Amino acid sequence: MVRKSHFDPQRVREEIAIAAARMIAEDGLDYATAKRKAARQVVGETRVAGEWLPDNDQIEEEIREYQSLFQGDSQPALLRRLRCIALDWMERLAPFNPYLTGAVLGGTAGEHSDVHLQAFCDNPKEVAIYFLNANIQYDVSETRHFAGRGYVETLSFLWRPANEGRDAEPVGIHVALYETDDLRGAVKADARGRTARANLQAVQALLDNSEATPSTN
What we know:
It is built from 7 helices and 6 strands; from the N terminus they run H-H-H-H-E-H-E-H-E-E-E-E-H. The chain is α+β, with helices and mostly antiparallel strands. The longest helix has 19 residues, at 9-27.
């Protein structure tokens, strides 16, 4: 095995990012798993020091590049379908102040992606009651709080829009339940002007913009 001291750290990070992006785009792996597998593929070791690893922003840029090159004919339509499903459920969950997050918001979602929503309300248990009244069968799990404050209850289920045929693949919907106060500061843009979550109006604007600006791929 070649020692890492013979490698250029920047080049290693680039190769790991490219390999991880391919795994995420093609196989639907999460970032952490893809990064770990890609590091082993590139460096040949299970554990790699942080200095050799790309951050998620670098991997995301490589995903966009990969999708543009190899999935340009399919990914935009898949993304639009997922955003339409997200918008539908955000309208249903409007009383609970829903926000979209994850790859469907960021634009890198593909055929393996799920819709991740966050609901902010005074009594998160009311979301579960809504699902029960709507006859939605869901599983309960926990998701790490986006601010690192423990975990929040998450309700998950599969959904196929009524206007799609039975052959259409159902989409995983995950609704993380937050208190209203958790929303404070959660919609601020980062240094690059990006927000980690978007409300119903913002998601509608994304869909309107995609109609007005057809893909050139």
